[in-house]
Write a structure and sequence with these properties.
The protein has six helices and six strands, in the order αααβββαβαββα. It has 240 residues and is α+β, with helices and mostly antiparallel strands. Among the domains are: 38 residues; 121 residues, OmpA-like domain (60s Ribosomal Protein L30, Chain: A), CATH 3.30.1330. The C terminus is likely disordered.
């Protein structure tokens, strides 16, 4: 019996095998190229892609060194918790102004319309405040307010708001808080308070007949020192 003739050409699986080997070869060539690519060329490719997609600044070869220098300067601003003085600018004499104080806790003490004496409800509220304020080393600001058209024995709204603040301060001092903890301010009718602070049965005209008691983040020790020390914190004249 004669042998069967072999079909012409190569088997089909050889083509599939060849395609697979070609793809594997390309894959390994790419891996080798990426692993041996120089940093400069990588940055050039990155910048080219950045420009193509509308990118911003060039990275530059010394980008990493500049980043390390910036971090080093930031770490050196404080060493062991001690602040390092900043470089002197064009005007070496400046005014030392305290940062805006933030409120820790406090409350609102209501007064009767036209009144400057503490009501029974106000004393109860102050007794609760004393429990919160007592023992803390923070400054306490007492800010007096007055409502428009209040008719009192005082000729000016400023006097009424100041008297209310002093009345609250004296009551807190009588409860044992040292007097040097307090800071008194009066606003007159120029910082009105909304009616939301009133009780439902209160006179709506008395929306600003009140005193704010605020414990601040400033400590009492921040303000210790002699008169000469405080004078040295100000300059003679601001630079123009």
């Amino acid at each position: 019996m004669p042998k069967p003739k072999c079909p012409a050409g190569v088997p089909e699986w050889v083509l599939t095998y060849g395609d697979m080997m070609s793809l594997l070869l390309c894959f390994f060539i790419m891996l080798y190229a990426i692993s041996t690519l120089e940093i400069v060329k990588a940055q050039a490719v990155s910048e080219s892609l950045s420009k193509a997609f509308g990118g911003g600044r060039k990275t530059g070869q010394n980008f990493q060194s500049r980043t390390q220098q910036a971090r080093s300067r930031q770490q050196q601003t404080t060493l062991g918790g001690q602040k390092i003085p900043a470089p002197v600018g064009d005007h070496d004499r400046v005014m030392n102004i305290r940062d805006m104080a933030e409120q820790v806790r406090g409350g609102v003490i209501m007064f009767d319309y036209n009144g400057d004496e503490l009501t029974d409800r106000a004393k109860q509220d102050l007794d609760l405040l004393v429990q919160q304020l007592m023992g803390a080393p923070y400054k306490i600001e007492i800010r007096g307010h007055a409502a428009v058209n209040e008719q009192s024995i005082y000729p000016r709204y400023w006097d009424l708001s100041y008297t209310r603040a002093m009345t609250v301060k004296d009551y807190l001092v009588s409860k044992g808080i040292p007097e040097r903890f307090f800071r008194i301010s009066a606003t007159g009718p120029y910082e009105p308070i909304g009616s939301g602070s009133l009780a439902p049965d209160a006179d709506p005209r008395a929306a600003s007949s009140l005193v704010e008691v605020m414990q601040l983040l400033d400590t009492v020790r921040d303000y210790d020192g002699s008169k000469a020390d405080r004078q040295n914190t100000f300059m003679d004249q601001l630079p123009l």
